[in-house]
Amino acid sequence: MNNRGLQETAVLIFANSAEVDVRNKISIARPELFQELTEHTLQVVRQSGLPFFHISEKEQHGNTFGERFSHAIKSIYDKGYKNVITIGNDSPELRAHHILETDKQLKHGKTVLGPTLDGGFYLMGLHQSNFDAQLFQKLPWQRVGLFHKISQLFRTNSSTLFTLPILRDIDVLEDVKVLLNFIGRIPKTVFKVLADLAKRSIQFFETYIPKPEIRFIIFSFNKGSPNLLLFS
Fold it and tell me: What pTM did the predictor assign?
């Protein structure tokens, strides 16, 4: 936890420990990856200068993700804060300016969402007056279309929605491969673990997955590439 001071906004880092993340994300089950991601997230939040609270599985309460997430948000409001900025630990492109821009928009009375490429969100900034725990618990958490559904909810409640840039999060191995193309936008320590993870996955497939027989069939056309047929 960081000092509250005179701030009305607090950051909620809703992220499990590396041990739990390893069990939940089997295809990228590397404890050092989640440790680096959490450290990066903490560093970014400290740079923002806002008070923050890290709620892991040890402090979470509820049977579903929606219940646990809603209870965590409410616990920050119960401490006396008017605005809550929620983030996870799986967005290595997250920077302090995303959090500061969210704080700025919250002060203007807006609700803030930072969308991810997979249809979820990496950040949410919400004033207490726009938080309804029961409605939140009914949202399609951890499913495709979450960003669309929660956007609809805010607009139905007459909230003015401000959207941050789209960022990539890490859930599966394919996300790792994509992020390796953006070395300048993720921490070097995280990039190193991602690169090693990708390398190991390639070695696994080369060792244990049978290689298909490749045959080229070339048609005598003036344009176009030859068709590639694969036979296992």
Answer: 0.76
